[in-house]
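A quick aside before the break. I want you to see a complete sequence-to-structure record at least once, exactly as it would be stored in a machine-readable document. Don't worry about memorizing anything.
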Amino acid sequence: MKIIKNLLATAFFASIIVILAASCSNDDDNDGNTSTVIEFDALPENAKTFLTTHFPTIESRMIKQNAMADDDGSIYDVYLNNGFEIDFDINGNWTDVDGNTQAVPTAIVPETITNYVTANYVGQTINTIEIERTGYDIELSNGLDLVFDNQGQFIRVDN
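That is the input. The structure line, written in tokens, reads:
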């Protein structure tokens, strides 16, 4: 009788473990937004033009298309071999360019922001730039986050 109880208990716990394992998602995003790996040619024209203009010799490591837009409106996440991560909206307009430890292309940064950073943060580069509803959020090479309005005028240091 004791053997049967042990077998039943083992079967019960094994089934609980199977149920729990099956309910876990293998999606890296915890927000339920699933993504599909796509090829470069599947990107919108604006995104392809941006990449070939600003990163002409760099290949993509991976390109993902999300099922739903993120908070910033991005649908496409492009990971380049040089460490850059670039997000694009449904129309192929960039929403976020993250160079990690590298400077973003100066051509994509509004001139007023470039001038402000050059004048006030000598020796620093812009390593991340995000377009937000109210303007731009940038991160400098020293880790400092700066917020600018839609016209590129400095608002504040973000904590």
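Two observations worth writing down. The first strand starts at residue 35 and ends at 37. Residues 6-30 have pLDDT under 50 and may be disordered. We'll return to this after the break.
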